[in-house]
Amino acid sequence: MWIRKKTCRVYTVIAGIWICTSALAQYDDGARYAFLASPQNKTVHVIDLQDRTLADSIDFERVPDSVSASESLKALVVAHAAADRLTLVDLSSDVLTQYDYPLTMTPDRVDVSPLGETVAIYDSHAGKLEIHAVRRRQLLLEADDVNTTEAFTFNLDGSTIYWVDRSTGTINSIDLWSKRRTLTLAPPDSNLSALSRSIDGAHGFISDADANVVYVVSLATFEQIQAVRTGLNPGRPWGTADGRYMLIPNRGDGTVTALSTLTLQPIYTVSAVDKPISINPGWLDTTAAVIGEAGDVVFLSVDDGRLTDSFELDSRPNEGVVTSDSRTLMVPVPDAGSVSFFDMRKRMFVSETDGLGRDIGEATLAISNNLCH
User: Fold this and answer.
1) Are 289 and 280 in contact, with CB atoms under 8 Å apart?
2) Is 324 a member of any domain?
3) What angle is formed at CA 330 by the lines to CA 36 and CA 78, rounded to 5 degrees?
4) Strand, coil or helix: what is 81?
5) Rounded to an integer, what distance in angstroms lies between the CA atom of residue 279 and that of residue 232?
6) Element (H or E) spanning 26, and its range?
């Protein structure tokens, strides 16, 4: 049953479930719209990437701690940790209908699979991981004794999920048939990053900030096949969309290491920005934007490691995200309540959209150029 309301946002009860409807709008173009949660305002901002404007703000009864977008579902998956539930927002509905999705766990972290059909939900206090087919409201997998502070990573078809356990120095996986695997990479309490996988799904790359290396793991055999030296305190690797490189931000010395996914050897390490937090490849993977913790942005020629244009944002940014056509970089700047846009081909700042909450999180797109996370 769909409820249509053209003028104002109202709440209606259907079969005991609260459903919120809003003014007529559709935001189901997964490549055009980005979404950012503002917990304090109990809203999710909708950014039109074509016009680079604030298209809408979706209000919620509960605090939206995080938001993920699914192209397959044409929906947003919004987590409410304090209420132990999700809200599913139908982006193909004219009224952006909201569906309540109660849980028996606290959704501290929510990750949508690459195909967008399943959602991984993690309760850090309980050490519990669940995978749901949300369209069918079906629990596919329940795993206990899962311990991680980092992001989860799915394989290509969403049937297996990976996580690092820093306390044991391991990379772990579990599939939908409950088969678990564990590989020890480093000593206990090592500073391991989340796994980033290669485009073809053959390899996983995990940084060790204590040892200044990136471990390369065969995801088929679940064995370590290489340990590649980087700069100081490497962060999570960022892959190029063409699958040729993994780019590693080294927070300890402000450098970037490029790793060939063919030879599994470093190509170069170059100085970039102080404490890099993200590396966003774009424009047919010829260039990458390296974003520093304080707001420095520098552009890198991916093939040869040459640095070109640089810019300074007004305050500390979040990680950036590149549109699916690889043309535009979007960088949320929470303290300013804004997002900044850069042209990846011209390697230049183009505009800013403000009027957002000053607590906005990372931007999510249903279809983006960030393929390896």
Assistant:
1) yes
2) no
3) 20
4) helix
5) 16
6) none
Residue with tokens 């998956």: 77
Report if residue 361 sits inside a domain.
no
For residue 40, what is the DSSP state? G
Q: Residues, the chain, total?
A: 373
Tell whether the torsion through CA atoms of 307, 353, 294 and 31 is positive or negative. negative
Query: How many structural domains does the chain have?
Result: 1
3-state helix, strand, coil in the chain (%, to 5): 0, 50, 50
Question: For the chain, which residues score pLDDT lower than 50?
Answer: 1-19, 21-22
User: Within 10 A of 26 (CB to CB), how many other CB atoms are there?
Assistant: 14
pLDDT for 8 equals 36
Domain hosting residue 132, numbered range: 1-30+61-145
* Prediction pTM value: 0.92
Domain CATH for 124: 2.120.10.30
* Dihedral sign computed on CA atoms, order 359, 362, 363, 364: negative
Query: DSSP character for 241?
Result: T
Give the whole-angstrom CA distance, residue 193 versus residue 163.
Answer: 9
Reported as a single tens digit per residue, the pLDDT across 282-300 is 999 999 999 999 999 999 9
The residue assigned the tokens 């016009």 is 51
The pair of three-digit structure tokens given for residue 287, joined into one six-digit string: 């260039």
Check if the beta carbon of residue 180 is closer than 8 Å to that of residue 168: no
- Bin 350: left if φ > 0, else alpha if -120 < ψ < 50, else beta: alpha
Residue 247 covered by a domain: no
Q: What are phi and psi of 116, to 5 degrees?
A: 80, 5
Evaluate whether residue 121 is within a structural domain.
yes
CA 198 – CA 203 distance, rounded (Å): 5
The 3 state secondary structure assigned to 160-227 is: EEEEEECCCCEEEEEECCCCEEEEECCCCCCCECCCEECCCCCEEEEEECCCCEEEEEECCCCEEEEE
Please list the residues that pair with 257 across neighbouring strands.
248, 269
